[in-house]
């Protein structure tokens, strides 16, 4: 059984995590996570654990999130976010994927990030800004390969058009699931046919 942890980053009311028009990052993240979870359910032998609050009402601590993932012995940890630059509208654009390879994980996270980034950029119709390294808690404290995606800038006049499209957010989530399926060698569930 393959165990995948999904993390929709932040809570609904976390201060500062908004577009200049007040749209909440958690809402974008949640759309992606829900689509990813639904798509992963179409594969055999996979379990998904969500470590943020699926209602968005509570901003679950980062320590609690990584502790849950580590205790569960997850195979992969994916945190889904959407970026901001200055908090005011601008013309920056693109998708970023973050890693921080721990000594216990090696370069596995980097391999996954290199697969995920270009594909979710394509799904969103945005530029791929590449893989970056960062000392983020969820990347540093997890005992399994972990990536953090930034699926576009909430304060970008370019990216916000994609972020406001439920269809594109759904596509980002489904694409994420498909890349994870390839990476983890998951097999699609066979449809049962009744005669």
UniProtKB/TrEMBL annotation:
Q: What is its EC number?
A: 3.5.1.28
Q: Which InterPro entries match?
A: MurNAc-LAA_cat, N-acetylmuramoyl_amidase_3
Residue ranges of domain MurNAc-LAA in the record? 66-181
Q: Which GO terms describe its cellular component?
A: outer membrane-bounded periplasmic space
Q: What class of enzyme is it?
A: hydrolase
Which top-level group of life is the source organism from? Bacteria
Residues in the signal sequence:
none
SUPFAM superfamilies attached to this UniProt entry: Zn-dependent exopeptidases
Assigned keywords, A-Z: Hydrolase
Which Pfam family would be a valid example here? Amidase_3
The GO biological-process annotations, alphabetized, read as: peptidoglycan catabolic process
GO terms assigned for molecular function: N-acetylmuramoyl-L-alanine amidase activity
Protein name in the entry = N-acetylmuramoyl-L-alanine amidase
What is the organism field in this record?
Sporosarcina thermotolerans
Q: What is the lineage of its organism?
A: Bacteria, Bacillati, Bacillota, Bacilli, Bacillales
């Amino acid at each position: 059984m393959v165990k995948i942890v999904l993390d929709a980053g932040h809570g609904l009311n976390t201060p500062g995590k908004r577009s200049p028009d007040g749209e909440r990052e958690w809402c974008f993240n949640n759309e992606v996570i829900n689509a990813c979870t639904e798509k992963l359910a179409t594969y055999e032998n996979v379990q998904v654990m969500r470590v943020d609050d699926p209602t968005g009402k509570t901003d679950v601590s980062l320590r609690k999130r990584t502790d849950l993932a580590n205790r569960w012995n997850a195979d992969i940890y994916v945190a889904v976010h959407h970026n901001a630059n200055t908090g005011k509208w601008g013309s920056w654009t693109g998708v970023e994927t973050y890693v921080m390879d721990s000594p216990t994980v090696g370069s596995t996270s980097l391999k996954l990030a290199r697969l995920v980034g270009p594909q979710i950029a394509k799904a969103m119709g945005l530029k791929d800004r590449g893989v970056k390294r960062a000392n983020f808690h969820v990347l540093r404290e997890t005992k399994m390969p972990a990536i953090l995606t930034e699926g576009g800038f909430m304060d970008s006049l370019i990216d916000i058009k994609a972020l406001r499209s439920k269809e594109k957010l759904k596509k980002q989530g489904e694409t994420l699931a498909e890349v994870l399926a390839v990476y983890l060698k998951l097999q699609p569930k066979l449809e049962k046919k009744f005669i």
